[in-house]
Amino acid sequence: KDLYMIDRWGRGYFDVSPDGNITVAPLQERGSKISIADVVRAAREEGLRAPLLIRFQDLLHHRVRTLNEAFNRAIAEVKYRGLYRGVFPIKVNQLKEVVEEILEAGKAYHYGLEVGSKPELFAGLSVHTDNESLIVCNGYKDENFIRTAMLGRKLGKKVILVAEKLSEVRTIARVAKEMNVEPLVGLRVRLMTEGAGKWAASGGEHAKFGLSTAEILAACNILSEAGMSSAFKLLHFHIGSQVPDILIVKRAVREATRHYAKLRKMGHKIEYMDVGGGLAIDYDGSRSTFHSSMNYSVEEYARDIVHNIADICDDEKVPHPNIVSESGRAIVAHHSVLVVQAFGSIEKTPSTPIDIQAEEHKLIQALLETRDNLTAANLAESWHDILQVKEESQKMFELGLLNLDVKARVETLYWENAEKMALLAGSLDQQEAPEDVVQLRTQLADQYICNFSVFQSLLDHWALGSLFPVVPIHRLNERPGSDSTLVDITCDSEGKVSKFIDLSDVRDTLPLHVLQGEEPYYLGIFLTGAYQDIMGDIHNLFGRVNEVHVFLDSDEDCGYYIEEMIAGNQIREVLGLTQYDTPGLIQRVKAQVDGAIKQDLMKPTEGMRLLADYERGLKDQTYLSF
Ligand code: PLP
Fold first, then answer.
1. How far is the CA of 240 from the centre of ligand 1 (A)?
2. Where is the active site (predicted)?
3. Residues at CB less than 6 angstroms from ligand 1
4. pLDDT(373) > 70
5. Ligand 1 atom showing the smallest separation from residue 139 Cα
6. Rounded to an integer, what distance in angstroms lies between the CA atom of residue 183 and that of residue 160?
7. Cα(499) to centroid(ligand 1), Å
8. Residue 475 has what pLDDT?
């Protein structure tokens, strides 16, 4: 448990059972724990194998409650005179079941939705039923976007259109008049405060979104000229996702609240202050300002927002606005775990030593001599010697002066030497060990081949270097036997995981257990519920993975049930997405089989059987089946 720092990033949701399995307690306080290995087994019995995405739906409830109660407590503590009206940004996880679960959990708090595109608005309008809660519309908008939002207004919903551009304010005013609706308008202010971490560019004066101070005043004029001054209801800002440092949050809140206060004093009766997203997740458990972490808690976040808004409003003597936040990552990241199967490993170091022959090639003799005389004192020199031998052997091979068997023996002995040196370096004082040799540990790491696609399921790791905790879901009562990296099954050298969480840093390898023959070995990739599912692409046509939705069983203390099973993509489905229709595929292969039969390359019965196999294979899932 300590090796993988589960208590640090798991936040009470994840633990290890005495028999070495990872467990999940979706509702921390109830204590019921679900073994992930049990869920994998149950799904497998129903035909759904890894890669398997497991959603713990009750965990969503817990997160929604945690956030809303943190704000409500902070409001009570400072006797704040406004309400908290949070919204969930659909873009962070659009899956209908996830959104519905969140809305259900948020009913008591009038928790609403944030949408950033037309499709999200269409989805949002249909699942949103609580007219006390908000629908905040961010992102660039065309006339149809605005008309659809007005439909929401006609249905009695508090749909707030947050303008990103002045031209949008004009269109909102015109369409509202045409449709005879009272619009609710928000303006996104472009703050000077810049975020930090990987999404810092969402804030600051060069951000893609938001209105400058001059544009905000111009927007107010447009509304008042249209006789709609009172429509300006919300002031919004967003300084980027995953803000690791609370000081930045405080600074942004204070800057935005000053804007609110000055606008209020000018007579604009703004009712809501929307602080956007940014509430981070402590992916590495370091509680630091590292990009994969955060140096604050949800409670501190809520307290600081409420306190700072109150402070500036009191200073400026303006009413406290209702507070909106758009936390996505903090609501959904914990609830899903991706389970992948490691089904083989690529080992750098030879498992069997070479036989030494009487008359060895001089390169081999040199490597043997280095190996047999290696000591801490000559470590650096020995390392340089074997590098030279490796280089020489490559040159000789290119000139045609080295046979393959000698080349193979040189390589084997080189890696054997390297492993010995890395071990020796590991036992030395850090000051003494040559850096090159210390780095060898990473080069020597085994690569575990895992049945999944980084591009489908872990896009932010590939694209942005985001870190996710990776832990075997079983065998945690056994000592791991290898330091490894992971490679996926795409034909792309970028399809790998070779950066892992460490305290405030990154480590290059992960301790894993030695694979035992055919015995499946499963790894859980945790905290993947935010953004990863939807941003994944179909590189190599792998497509969606199998998915199960797990609920705690209210009758039994330790029980759970799988409410929904969603099979991953079939081969014919992903081919359909790239214009290969199933009948067309079969027809073309049949024509080729007929041709082969005519040329006597196969018997008709064999041809028909192979064609039937091809047809059946199109319904197989895209990932490998073990
Ligand atoms: N609101 C807006 C406008 C966003 O652009 C984003 C994402 O970057 C969010 C909310 C959600 O942010 P987070 O997932 O950090 O809570």
1. 6
2. 491
3. 89, 92, 114, 138, 199, 238, 241-242, 276-279, 326-330, 530
4. yes
5. 3
6. 8
7. 25
8. 97
Determine whether 491 is an active site residue.
yes
- CA–centroid distance, 114 to ligand 1, in Å, is 9
Q: What percent of the chain has pLDDT over 90?
A: 83
Pull the structure tokens for residue 551: 């609920």
Predicted pLDDT at 202? 67
Q: What is the pLDDT of residues 399-415, one digit of tens each?
A: 999 999 999 999 999 99
The token pair at 278 is: 């940014």
Nearest residue (by CA) to ligand 1, atom 6, is 277
Q: Which atom of ligand 1 is nearest to the CA of 242?
A: 15
Task: Measure the CA–CA gap between 3 and 377, rounded to whole angstroms.
Answer: 32
CA of 271 to the centre of ligand 1 (A): 21
- How many CB atoms are located within 10 Å of the residue 44 CB? 14
Distance CA 205, CA 210 (A): 9
Q: Is the pLDDT of residue 39 over 70?
A: yes
Q: Do residues 342 and 512 make contact, with C-beta atoms less than 8 angstroms apart?
A: yes
pLDDT for the residue 526: 98
pLDDT reading at 563 higher than 80: yes
Best residue among 63, 71, 87, 91 to mutate for probing ligand 1's pocket (most ligand atoms within 8 Å of CB) is: 91
Alpha-carbon dihedral of residues 353, 357, 361, 363, nearest 10 degrees?
30
CA dist 431 and 351 (Å) reads 31
Residue 51: asked if its preceding bond is cis (omega within 30°), the reply is: yes
Contact 182, 231 (CB under 8 A): yes
Handedness of CA 464, 469, 470, 473 (dihedral sign): negative
pLDDT digit string, tens, across residues 503-535: 867 899 999 999 998 899 999 999 999 999 888
